[in-house]
Design a protein that fits this description.
The protein is α/β, with parallel strands linked by helices. It is built from 14 helices and eleven strands. The radius of gyration is 24 Å and the shape is globular. Its cofactor is pyridoxal 5'-phosphate.
Length: 470
Amino acid sequence: MKLQEDLKHTDRLLQLTKEFSSKFLSSLDRLAADKTVDIPVKQSMPAEGVGGVAALELFRQQYGNAITAAAGPRYWGFVTGGVTPAALMGDWLAATMDLNSSDKGSAAFAIETETIALLKQLFGLPDAFLGCFVTGATMANFTGLALGRQWLGQQRGIDIGKQGMAGLQDLQVVSCVPHSSVTKSMAMLGLGRDNVVKIPALPGRESVDIDALRTYLESRKGQPVIYVASAGTVNTVDFDDIAAIVELKKQYPFWLHVDAAFGGFAACSDHYRHLLNGWEQADSITIDAHKWLNVPYDAAMIFSRHPGLQVEVFQNAGAAYLGDPAENFNFINHIPENSRRLRALPAWFSLMAYGKDGYRHIVEENVALAQQLGDLLEKHPAFRLLAPVRMCVVCFTLNVQADEQEEVVNRFLQALNATGVVCMTRTVYAGQPGIRAALVNWRTTANDVQLAYQTMKEVVATVLNLHKYA
């Protein structure tokens, strides 16, 4: 039986896997940052199996040429970190040990508890926050909104966790520039995508107009709502004035959830920490680990000041073998998932290996490089910044006539990504088609910025010339 044969040769299988992994990592600078590949599904389920060695070779043959450097220094699409060497060590061990983080009888429980404590120190969050690992920012936002929903029910005398939402009406989630995962979470929670209320931003910004928010809250006449504050928007890394929003909480009833998926890492730097002033008074906070923490997918954290509400929403009621959640703390009574991979271990390794200074350097270096790219684009006549480079995202477009902008931007971005040198993503900002480059990878250097910029100049010259004679 192949399984028993593989058991006898586990060391060899691990060595082959290590060699494949090492070769991949050593080639990150040469691999295409991104490419579109049509991979036909050719394999059928084998009756007997081929064993680990042959499976690795099949993988190499079918998918090897399609693997891109999404963890590389010039993948600037979405907001994607790389994997630090120490995080890779932790991830390998997490898979090897296959521990359930929700098992209080294993080391996994202590590892997650300690890692959350380390993260609160990194971010400067008070001990009053309970932190838990979830799969990503979407599930962290889902959890924060679920707690807000439970709080809204409480204000109206309804325990939604027990009674459901039948007795609730007019539930609103308020925000200025919410991430798409917020409205997705609203759909999953039965709050409904259409029930998001968008408050105007300050002129030329993605930061909420506090006066407009105050006017809205006054119009609600004391009716409780959920407010989702942005701590780092995906287009321009803009921040709501959290301290001012906290002041409004003293006058009006609302649940404050801060979406700080990657903007929360501003806390790592003395230069940018002020952007988060007041967030320690939030009710819940989302921070994504597989972004600027540079650990593998999938990992994020939800921090909350209301563990009692979490139990009301997520407790495993009726599971006697799990014990009383009021007497015996367990992560499974505070988040959506029960059985969970040891997501904390890669973070623990990376935090211990590089410390506060290491993450301060990553954040400040990425910001400096993004500003360098922004300066280069601003000086080139073919490009135009759509917003100032506030932190790690450069949002720009091409200098063409408005009625041609969408077509030319699409053509340029497609051609740029096709080079494999760098990858960026399309966006729309202030009604204009644009492009965004997000630099949150620890590997990125000034040489990468220069290489990307040189490629951008060559591509834009070709695209504009073709467009001129089209």
